[in-house]
Write a structure and sequence with these properties.
Elements: E1 2-3, E2 7-15, E3 23-31, H1 45-49, E4 64-71, E5 77-88, H2 91-96, H3 98-103, E6 105-107, E7 113-115, E8 128-137, H4 142-158, H5 164-173, E9 175-176, E10 183-186, E11 194-197, H6 210-218, H7 220-231, E12 235-240, H8 243-256, E13 265-267, E14 284-289, E15 302-306, E16 311-313, H9 327-339, H10 360-378, E17 386-390, E18 396-399, H11 401-408, H12 414-421, H13 423-432, E19 436-437, H14 441-448, H15 450-456, H16 460-478, H17 510-526, E20 537-538, H18 560-575, H19 578-591, H20 595-607, E21 614-615, H21 618-633, H22 643-651, E22 654-659, E23 662-665, H23 679-698, H24 723-733, H25 739-768, H26 777-780, H27 799-811, H28 822-840, H29 845-875, E24 896-905, E25 926-933, E26 936-943, E27 953-958, E28 962-969, E29 980-986, E30 990-996, H30 1001-1016, H31 1025-1028, H32 1049-1063, H33 1113-1123, H34 1126-1134, H35 1143-1148, E31 1151-1154, E32 1170-1173, H36 1178-1185, E33 1195-1199, E34 1206-1210, H37 1218-1222, H38 1234-1251, H39 1270-1275, H40 1297-1301, E35 1329-1334, E36 1349-1354, H41 1359-1373, H42 1384-1394, H43 1396-1415, E37 1419-1423, ...
Parallel strand pairs: 12-14, 12-15, 13-14, 21-22, 34-37, 35-36, 35-37
Antiparallel strand pairs: 1-9, 2-3, 2-8, 4-5, 5-8, 6-7, 10-11, 15-16, 17-18, 19-20, 22-23, 24-25, 24-30, 25-26, 26-27, 28-29, 29-30, 31-32, 33-34, 38-39, 40-41, 40-46, 41-42, 42-43, 44-45, 45-46
């Protein structure tokens, strides 16, 4: 029973003490005057009576009523019911408010303002003061309070003859039950009667209609938003003009939170004077009158709900987490159904009669029922996560948040996480966690209805039914009985407040009231206390929890098979079958990504622990630790799935003996996981274990089965009671026990907790103290040392824990410890933990002190133990790190400089190796070692991803190719935390991104860098691998056999060099004898027998310089060796003269071979023999050379066999050269300077070149390129803009060539694909010689007055641009780190930024231009930069395109030797081979040339004898320094080192090949890897490749990688991966499968699966070997097969060379679209059917531009017999323009949709194809000239295509009609 009202108070208006305008409330009287003992009088009532302030009012207002809520210091709520009425103010009160009246504004009670005016109803003098009757109660019976206060007011106003004192006395003495559902009738003695209904249970809130009203005012979304905000502890402010509405809204919101109780500030009506409370930092629910809305504007973190406007405003800085899906959407839809039942029926065609809407009270309960269900779904199974830590004297209960979230599958959910961490939930656990108590609706719902709710989810009607059932129960709780007795309460008459009151509210007699109260008290004391027996019982736990949303775990769905694998692997480990276990391990580690497999592992390992200990051998220990680490690496710090919890007992059980007396436990190897440094994890574990032990205390003698520690498992199915059941039973028995027994139980429990605390202190020291003190996770993460309270998993916030920790830290002796002191950090961590759990679990302070003394000792003892373990474990042979160090294969002569340094190879930006989107296995990161040899940097290792298995990963590159090394700091999660890293990038497109293992150390890494640097940049060429490997220079002087043998070539070359050195740069040389020492004995005195006499005189007679005369024998010998060089062999082939030709013949030839540079005196970088015009004397060449950079004057390097035009090359012009010559100056005066004379020499020289041209003496005026009119140029599209500002117009007439070739403006429409024009277009008008020069050099140059030659200025890129472009290309193809936005777009963007393809485009464009000029009969001089970079590229490309010889293996070698080596491309300088060139960096000019060749090869695969692999091979080795071929910068330097003419005997030494060509020859004999099977050249075909960037392909040399064996270009090494050790070989008895998986980026596809021809050749060789024959060379076999095929091709035996593969390919660009896929083991033929038709080309250029359609390609490899012939016959066809009619055999093919024609019926070679897809019309035709005379006119018909009109003639009109019908039928079918 409780008092209905505690106090009655009368509050009136009083003046403000400080005399301000506002008044203040004064308590006139209160009853009883003395405070109740159990309930003191609440302070501040006078503020709450008038929340808007006490003010006088100019007129009488009707009385108002509201209930305010005050909360006292003990969180008890007091309900203050206030009834306010107005009485005329007394004079004193009026005076107080005079200032207000003067202001003319008064504030009304309801917050509105009213301006006083002369027309106000009441006279200004008459004011009314408020007076309030207040009833203070702890019960919330609003209507009873309203009636009671109304009665008192009525008695006063109506003047009833009832004593007010007795009414108030009766009110204060009225008592009613708190709950139980009884009805109580009361009367206050004024003829009134009221029925008070108590709720059935007081735990359920009473809401009347407040929830329904809240939804009406704000709507569903807003209420849900407020609901989530209240649960997640945000500040909520309600605004309204009605106080009662504010109170109702706050009450409604709190009712929705049931079963949680709101425990923060709760003020439904906040007085104006207390508005500053709104800036409090704590959460609150507060209501404020709408009049004060302005004051709430600046609140930044408060959610404002405007009840009158129906809005909720959430500030930007506040994030309210929504309910987890699907609960959010389900709740929303149920609420909308409850609030608007007609919503479901709105769309029905025949809606049922309207459903009666629920009453407001019922709707209120339905809405509450929805939220009650929601909580039951959210908190389902919460009791399974309760830890009962103490049972007596009071239950202490903890909630395991992490386990709950983990098992509900809501670890990531923000909402639930915040709810569980909130104060409301803490209260929920302490109130509802109690195992033995009264239960209510929520307990039953969460225990018994879960399954029903889950089943109903998808059935809205069933959900609604359940909601209605729950609503019934809630309604019944508030209204258990129908209201029988009627209320009877007097009310005042209408408008009674307007009548003049008979008198003010009288002062009451305190004595009378007190007497009534005392009387009642005396009665109460006499009566026996009404004890309501509380029905307590064990709270049901309900079914175990399930995930809120069954998410399939996708990849790791744990099939039984996976668990089987885990079990098998563990049993193999413990049975000692290590090989079997090793095979299964990768699968196990993969499976352990799934939760069930991890659980399975812990259960299996538990089975192998006997008596808490399991001693393993080293290998077993290693396996177990690896599996444990794998389990733990996916554990978060909270360990939601209890994996770390299950492993904790195991890591202290599994151990191995290191030496006698030293045992290493598994915990020392699994410390690197975040979970161990998380206080919440340890607390949950501790409480779980305490619960197990406390439960064991009360159970009968311990059962057989071990106590289960797994939190989430059902701790008790049937037999053993759970801990909660045990606790419930004990709480039931507790009152019946004797005092002594109670004490004993309390003591037992306390000591159980204490012993567990000691146990945990040891456990924590095990896992927090590392073997190696430098690696403490605690010290690494300061988070671990943070205050555990802040993020505690426990729900008791206890300030004592912190203070105790402080006090005991000093005792532990570690207070001065530095932060780096591991022991100190661990002691502090453990002490905090101990303080927290012991204070929460009620451990006595003595015990706690003892613990604090013990902790440092425990830690210290453990450190000492660990020192021994650490020492011994270091002595162990290291547990074999996976994988073993695999030794790489080395080349002959290659030596290891640094043996394997253990490293991790990390993934770079290329996805393929790391799996990535390509979907391959993750080969990287790999664990292994890096080796540094004299030739290469090699990584060998194995992938760390266990899935990939035992694949060997090799990545290597030549040391010489290194372009950049940079230090990187790496944080990998491979196995350790690695710091030092190195990224090495090579110009052969490899990248090594490595992290050094801890065992290497920074010194090892630094040594590696230094050695690498030393090898990369040797001080001189002798330090390179090509020289150092196998070098055999014998010390001492070599013996000379006999004098008469003559000087050796080597000696001669040295003599040459010494003389050349003296000669260079000198103009007049006198005779002088000199005998230089040999290379090895340069320091010794010269030998007598080495005399030599060489003289060069500039003024010598012409006759003395003829090749045969005037040379000393030694000179002749030198020359004969020069003649053997590639240049001379090529000159001879081209008919450019030989050194030994007779004088008479020499005179008749236009060009001759000049030995003028045999001493390298004129130009060091040119070869010794040069081709110059016959008419130029050698002595003039010295002067000509001065006009050119580096003295590289124009020399002939190639002559066209057809047009006899020559190609010349030179360096760029010096300033005083051609520029001076061509500038418009006065005629040279007789007093010329030296420069002018050389310019004249130069002009003469060019004139001589022009004169040597065969067609120079052509007829009339020689027109040049400049002669075209701009209109003519425009019409010719592609080359339209090649012109210079010549005499035909100023700069405005045409666009200059440079900008054209730079790919900018074009006058006419460009031809598609950058195809060359018709070759005939340049012929009518041309100069005899075109000089291709740099635009920058030739500015302002006039053309030659005689127009014999013409300048073509072009814009070329410089070497530095190539270097920059190459750098970007490297980064694009081999990025160092993953792209920000993965996918092809970023790669293509960076490729475009590199401008590499643009440079290739320019080179091809210039080369095709030169080819065209040469083909038209004009000679071309290429004179760009210094003449050794871009000049070399262009000249080489031109020769390759023009001359089929250079497209053979031998010819290409000759081309490279001649143009690149002899003409002095600076390989060493551009490749930065030496220390001196380190700063200049790598400029891959030669690589760029090879890329151009690759582009041409792609477009013309049948024109090249060599394969794409050959080009890649050269690309790799020109940078590798493995061969001497591509070293040094010129022949001069090679001779100086004695490289060029090595004596035959020396070359046959034991060393490996020193020349790349020799190596290629040797390999070619063994394997067809360099040969192109599609080679079927056309005679004398000039290639004109498309050059637009869109036609260029990125070379796969840049992007492909073979991780199985490293780059495939060192052929001797590419024999497959290193062999596995013996013991690991698979059982030979097992049948070996022939299937093999080929992985992208790992295997070399062409080697794994060679093309058909290579395979057949291999098979032949194998068969021949088996038959005992000497195997025939592959080339001979191939040539024989080709010859036989040719003969078979035609009946008469005549075959064209192309008939083998290209019987039907059109003449030009045969084979376009047939691309060759290249690999180290030969070529694969694959058709890439790209039909980019070059539409719009004119008929004249269709020969070049026509690309065959896919159907033509399709028919390329078909024989005539197998073709589809729908209809065939003979037709006459008119040839192209000006060609006759011819009879052909036509075949109409419906399948391929084409019309083909042949020479005759049995012809197998198709002569042409008309694609029916291009046919526009078929119409009758008319006979034209030359048509067959014998047929009628109707036999003619025309076929019009998009390209041209074909004229046909049949034998007669009928067959013509039939053909037309057939063709049209084909067209309509399509």
């Amino acid at each position: 029973m409780a008092r209905l009202a505690d106090y009655f108070v009368l509050v009136a208006f009083g003046p403000h003490p400080r005399g301000s305008g506002e008044g203040q409330g004064q308590i006139l009287q209160r009853f009883p005057e003395k405070d109740w003992e159990d309930n003191p009088f609440p302070q501040g009532i006078e503020l709450f009576c008038q929340p808007s302030g006490w003010q006088l009012c100019p007129e009488r207002s009707p009385p108002t009523f509201f209930v305010a809520v005050l909360t006292d210091i003990n969180s008890e709520r007091h309900y203050c019911a206030c009834l306010t009425f107005w009485e005329p103010a007394e004079p004193t009160q009026e005076a107080a408010s005079a200032e207000d009246a003067a202001d003319g504004e008064e504030e009304l009670e309801d917050g509105g303002r009213m301006r006083l005016s002369p027309s106000a109803p009441a006279p200004a003098s008459q004011l009314f003061a408020p007076k309030t009757l207040v009833l203070v109660s702890r019960l919330d019976h609003t209507e009873v309070f309203r009636n009671s206060l109304g009665l008192i007011y009525t008695v006063h106003v109506e003047g009833l003859d009832v004593s007010l004192e007795s009414v108030i006395g009766n009110l204060l003495t009225c008592t009613i039950p708190l709950a139980g559902g009884s009805q109580r009738t009361i009367s206050l003695g004024a003829g009134d009667r009221q029925v008070i209904q108590t709720p059935l249970t007081d735990s359920l809130p009473v809401s009347c209609c407040s929830v329904a009203l809240l939804f009406r005012q704000l709507g569903i979304t807003n209420v849900l938003c407020l609901f989530c905000a209240a649960l997640t502890e945000h500040k909520i402010l309600f605004l309204s003009r009605s106080y009662q509405r504010l109170a109702d809204a706050c009450r409604g919101l709190l009712a929705l939170l049931f079963p949680l109780r709101y425990s923060f500030t709760y003020v439904p009506i906040l007085p104006a004077q207390l508005l500053e409370v709104l800036s409090t930092p704590t959460p609150f629910v507060i209501g404020v009158h709408a009049a004060f809305q302005a004051e709430t504007q600046e609140l930044l973190d408060v959610i404002i709900a405007d009840l009158d406007g129906g809005t909720v405003t959430v500030p930007e800085c506040v994030h309210i987490p929504p309910l987890p899906e699907p609960l959010q959407s389900q709740t929303h839809s149920v609420l909308s159904t409850v609030l608007d039942p007609e919503l479901e029926l709105a769309d029905l065609a025949f809606p049922p009669p309207t459903v009666p809407a629920s009453s407001l009270k019922m709707q209120d309960k339905e809405l509450r029922a929805v939220f009650l269900r929601l909580f039951a779904q959210l908190l389902q199974g919460y009791r399974w996560c309760l830890h009962i830590v103490r049972i007596h004297p009071e239950p202490v209960i903890r909630f395991h948040k992490a386990a709950f979230l983990g098992q509900r599958g809501l670890v990531e959910d923000d909402f639930l996480m915040k709810v569980l961490e909130g104060m409301a939930f803490a209260g929920f656990v302490s109130e509802r966690g109690v195992p033995y108590r009264a239960t209510d609706l929520f307990d039953e719902l969460v225990a018994h209805e879960v399954a029903r709710m889950r089943a109903d989810e998808s059935h809205p009607q069933r959900v609604l039914r359940h909601v209605k059932e729950l609503a019934e129960q809630l309604y019944k709780n508030e209204n258990p009985y129908p209201a029988v007795a009627m209320h009877k309460v007097q009310r005042p008459a209408e408008a009674s407040h307007l009548r003049r009151a008979p008198r003010p509210f009288p002062r009451l007699d305190e004595g009378t009231v007190q007497w009534i109260v005392d009387q009642a008290m005396a009665k109460m004391q006499g009566a026996p206390p009404a004890v309501r027996a509380e029905r307590r019982s064990t709270v049901p736990s309900g079914p175990p929890m399930t995930a809120i949303l069954e998410r399939s775990s996708g990849l790791h769905a744990n099939s039984a098979r996976r668990l089987e694998v885990v079990r098998n692997c563990i049993s193999y480990v413990f049975e000692g079958k290590m090989l079997e276990a090793k095979k299964l391990l990768p699968a196990v580690l993969r499976a352990l990504k799934g939760r069930a497999a991890r659980r399975c592992l812990t259960q299996e390992l538990h089975l192998h622990v006997q008596q808490n200990r399991a001693v393993l051998d080293h290998q077993q220990f290693d396996f177990v630790v690896r599996m444990m680490n794998c389990c733990l690496q996916d554990c978060t710090s909270a360990d939601e799935h209890g994996i770390a919890a299950a492993l904790l007992p195991l890591v202290t059980a599994f151990c191995r003996k290191l030496s006698p007396g030293v045992t290493q436990f598994a915990y020392s190897c699994v410390q690197e996981h975040v979970v161990w440094s998380t206080p919440q994890f340890w607390e949950a574990m501790f409480y779980g274990d305490v619960q197990t032990h406390v439960r064991a205390l009360y159970l009968e003698p311990p059962e057989d089965r071990p106590p289960t520690q797994q939190v989430g498992e059902a701790l008790a199915q049937e037999e053993p009671p759970s801990a909660l059941d045990v606790a419930s039973e004990q709480r039931r028995l507790w009152p019946t026990l004797s005092r002594a027994k109670q004490q004993e139980l309390v003591q037992k429990e306390e000591s159980t907790v204490f012993s567990q605390a000691i146990h945990y202190a040891s456990r924590m020291s095990y896992l927090l103290l590392p073997l190696d003190a430098s690696k403490s996770r605690l010290l690494r993460e300061r988070a671990g040392l943070g205050d555990p309270e802040s993020a505690s998993n426990s729900l008791v916030t206890n300030s004592m824990a912190g203070s105790v920790a402080e006090s005991y830290d000093t005792e532990s002796g570690f207070e001065d410890a530095e932060t780096s002191d591991v022991a100190g950090a661990v002691v502090r961590f453990i002490n905090r933990f101990v303080d927290k759990v012991c204070t929460e679990s009620g451990v006595t302070s003595d015990h706690l002190k003892g613990l604090h003394v013990m902790v440092p000792d425990i830690v210290q003892m453990h450190i000492e133990t660990l020192e021994a373990v650490h020492r011994e474990s270091r002595r162990l042979p290291p547990i074999q790190k996976q994988p073993k160090l695999l030794r790489p294969r080395l080349l002959p002569g290659e030596e290891c400089v640094l043996d394997g340094l253990r490293v991790y190879l990390l993934p770079d930006g290329r996805e393929e190796g790391a799996g990535g989107s390509a979907g391959g296995p993750a080969l990287l990161p790999a664990e292994g070692a890096v080796f540094l040899t004299t030739y290469r940097v090699i990584f060998t290792g194995m992938p760390t991803d266990p899935l990939v298995g035992e694949q060997v990963v090799v990545r290597a590159f030549p040391v010489a190719a290194l372009t950049k090394e940079k230090r990187i700091s790496v944080q990998t999660h491979v196995d350790q935390f690695l710091q030092d890293g190195l990224q090495l990038r090579a110009c052969t497109f490899q990248l090594l991104r490595m992290a050094f293992d801890e065992e290497v150390g920074s010194e090892g890494a630094e040594l590696f860098r230094k050695q690498l640097h030393r090898l990369r940049y040797p001080p001189d060429i002798k330090g390179t691998f090509a020289f150092a490997s196998g070098a055999t220079h014998t010390p001492g002087r070599p013996g000379r056999a006999a004098k008469d043998k003559g000087p050796s070539l080597r000696t001669l070359s040295r003599n040459l060099m010494k003389n050349a050195k003296r000669t260079i740069g000198r103009q007049h040389i006198t005779r002088k004898k000199y005998s230089p020492p040999s290379w090895e004995h340069r320091g010794q005195p010269p030998a007598e027998d080495q005399e030599d006499e060489i003289a060069v005189s500039e003024e010598a007679e012409p006759s003395t310089l003829t090749p045969s005369a005037g040379l000393k024998p030694a000179d002749r010998l030198t020359l004969s060796s020069l003649v053997e060089r590639a240049c001379c062999r090529d000159y001879q082939r081209l008919g450019l003269g030989t050194l030994g030709s007779s004088l008479s013949r020499a005179k008749s030839e236009p060009f001759r071979v000049s030995p003028v540079n045999r001493m390298y005196a004129i130009c060091r970088s040119y070869p010794g023999l040069l081709i110059v015009p016959q008419s130029v004397q050698d002595n003039a060449l010295q002067r000509v050379s001065r006009c050119y950079r580096q003295n590289r004057f124009p020399v002939v390097c190639w002559r066209s066999g057809r047009s006899k035009a020559v190609l010349l090359r030179s360096g760029g012009l010096h300033g005083k050269g051609v520029v001076g010559l061509f500038k418009a100056q006065n005629a040279p005066s007789p007093g010329q300077s030296q420069a002018d004379s050389s310019s004249l020499e130069q002009e003469k020289y060019l004139q001589a070149v022009v004169s040597a041209m065969p067609r120079y003496a052509d007829a009339s005026g020689r027109n040049t390129l400049s002669g075209f009119s701009s209109a003519h140029l425009g019409s010719h599209g592609k080359w339209g803009s090649i012109r210079v500002s010549g005499r035909s117009g100023g700069p405005g007439v045409g666009v200059d060539v440079g900008s054209r070739l730079a790919g900018r403006d074009v006058l006419g429409p460009p031809q598609p694909n950058g195809a060359p024009p018709d070759s005939g277009f340049l012929r009518p008008q041309r100069a005899a010689l075109y000089i291709i020069g740099d635009k920058a050099q030739l500015k302002g140059v006039r053309p030659d007055p005689l127009q014999q030659w013409e300048l073509v200025p072009i814009e070329v890129f410089e070497a530095r641009q190539v270097k920059a472009s190459f750098k970007k290309l490297l980064k694009a193809c081999v990025p160092g780190c993953p792209a920000a936005e993965p996918g092809p777009a970023s790669y293509l963007r960076s490729l475009e930024d590199s401008e590499w393809l643009t440079q290739i485009h320019k080179l091809l464009q210039v080369s095709v231009l030169v080819v065209e000029l040469l083909d038209s009969g004009s000679s071309v001089l290429v004179s760009l930069e210094d003449g050794w970079d871009i000049t070399t590229q262009v000249v080489s490309l031109v020769q390759l395109l023009s001359d089929p010889f250079y497209r053979t293996l031998e010819g290409f070698r000759l081309l490279v030797e001649k143009e690149w080596l002899s003409f002095g491309h600076r390989f060493s300088h551009r490749g930065a081979h030496m220390l001196a060139g380190q700063s200049s960096g790598v400029v891959p000019i030669f690589l760029q040339f090879l890329d151009c060749v690759h582009q041409v090869h792609l477009q013309f695969p049948m024109e090249f004898e060599f394969s794409q692999f050959y080009l890649k091979f050269l690309s790799y080795h020109h940078a590798s320094r493995r061969f001497r071929t591509f070293l040094l910068d010129s022949d001069y330097e090679r001779i100086e080192l004695g490289l060029l003419y090595e004596e035959k005997g020396e070359r046959r030494g034991q060393q490996a090949c020193r020349s790349v060509w020799e190596h290629v020859d040797r390999l070619s004999k063994k394997t067809p890897v360099f040969y192109n099977y599609m080679y079927a050249p056309e005679d004398a075909e000039v290639l004109r490749p498309y050059s637009n960037v869109s036609n260029l392909k990125v070379w796969d040399f840049y992007t492909e990688e073979t991780l199985a064996e490293g780059p495939p270009y060192d052929w001797e090494l590419a024999r497959g991966p290193p062999e596995p050790p013996e013991e690991e070989r698979p059982d030979s008895s097992a049948p070996q499968s022939r299937r093999r998986v080929v992985w992208p980026c790992y295997d070399s596809r062409p080697r794994a699966q060679p093309d058909a021809i290579s395979r057949l050749l291999e098979e032949l060789q194998r068969l021949e070997t088996e038959l005992g024959r000497p195997p025939e060379r592959w080339k001979d076999t191939w040539d024989r097969v080709k010859a036989a095929q040719r003969l078979e091709g035609r009946p008469d035996g005549r075959g064209t060379p192309g008939s083998l593969l290209a019987s039907t390919v059109p003449h030009h660009r045969r084979s376009l679209g047939v691309y060759l896929q290249e690999g180290p083991a030969g070529s694969t033929l694959s058709l890439s059917l790209d039909s980019d038709q070059s539409g719009g080309s004119s008929a004249s250029s269709s020969r070049q531009a026509a690309r065959r359609s896919t159907s033509a390609l399709y028919s390329q490899f078909q024989t005539a017999e197998s073709e589809n012939r729908s209809y065939e016959g003979t037709l006459y066809k008119k040839g192209a323009f000006m060609k006759p009619w011819k009879a052909r055999w036509f075949v109409l093919d419906k399948t391929k949709h084409q019309l083909r024609y042949y020479d005759h019926r049995v012809d197998t070679e198709c002569k042409g194809v008309i694609d029916l897809a291009e046919v526009e019309a078929v119409a009758p035709g008319a006979p034209t000239m030359g048509a067959p005379k014998t047929v009628g006119e109707k036999a003619f018909f025309d076929v019009k295509t998009t390209r041209r009109v074909y004229n046909f003639c049949a034998q007669d009109a009928a067959s013509a009609q039939q053909w037309v019908d057939r063709i049209q039928g084909c067209l309509s079918d399509a």
